[in-house]
Hints:
By secondary structure, the protein is α/β, with parallel strands linked by helices. Helices cover 46% and strands 19% of the residues. It has 12 helices and 12 strands. It has helices at residues 41-50, 71-79, 83-87, 92-98, 112-120, 145-169, 174-196, 206-223, 237-244, 246-268, 294-310, 341-357, and strands at residues 2-6, 30-36, 56-61, 64-70, 105-107, 131-136, 139-143, 227-234, 276-281, 284-290, 326-333, 363-365. The strands form 3 sheets. It has a 5-stranded mixed β-sheet, sandwiched between helices.
Amino acid sequence: MSVEFIAPYNSPQKTPENLSLESTLKDLAVFNFQVESSSLAKDVARLFQAHPLLPGVILTVNGEFLGMISRRRFMERMSRPYGVDIFADRPIKALYQIDQTELLILPGIALIVMAAQRAVQRPPELLYEPIVVQLEPQVYRLLDVHQVLVALSQIHQQATWYISELYYNLSVTQSELEAANFQLKAANSELYRLANSDGLTQVANRHCFNEYLEKEWQQLGEAGAELSLILCDIDFFKKYNDTYGHQAGDACLQQVAKTIVEAVNYAAGEVSEETMVARYGGEEFAVILPGIAPDLAVSIAEEIRVWVKKLEIENIKSPVSCWVTLSLGVASTVPRPETSKKDLIAAADRSLYQAKDAGRDRVILDAIKLDK
């Protein structure tokens, strides 16, 4: 098993400076995370846990490239009912063959602008899959799509500067300059949206969730205010997918996400603009509620549960209801130096599983007071 991070000029958390329209994928940080396809899935899971920035894993057979499975698809497959029991002690190749998807493989000399365009033109379910970069024959690396979009945003900023130079040096007319700036602002706005939203459901993605939770944790900790978190899981979603198909499953996820946003906006009232709804993974959604006490957070979670059930999306194989339902876990705390946002997530996750164990289609507030 080979694990190595290759960074020509930068770290994965820092975009290289002085990118231009001629910059290629070789100018960005790429990951060399390779395992033989005979490696056990549980060993790959440990490596993902040890390297949280890795977007995926390249699979090889006797050192020859076989394919790639992303962290997101690996975690979704392992988190399904009996996923760990089925795959943990089996070769990673078994999981890859079941969850194999179309790869975006580009040469290292490909322009960043072209790579970003190819990446966002993929179907929504593949939008955030890593790009496979071929540096040389049989030399493959992984590139996080978010990094490509950030790099493209920097290139657009360079283009803005170039247009300003043209204005002064080539006497570009005011109307032409305004039109160009408008297009650049629109492009940057769209890039920001793509980099921070889930391609299927259009709510915030996991990356955006992590950033916003960290920001609110710091701000509310300084203010001594409460921070609440809701984790929502669609009950028996695998049965729904198996019964109605993945296209219907995607449509269900979109309806549920839209309804969660509407329910939060209705129930949170004046503070709704400070809340965030994000796709946490697979059929799980998360709601960040800054400055909201536990009792109100539970009330908001109950509104979400009722609103989703009122959609009356049929799920005939669900043991708890003939409709699609949610189990919701709520946790709340005042951020303190001796705790971290991971404690809040863990508490919400515990209450979510308590809701499942209690029969699903319900809201549970974690009994442990994190701020004590």
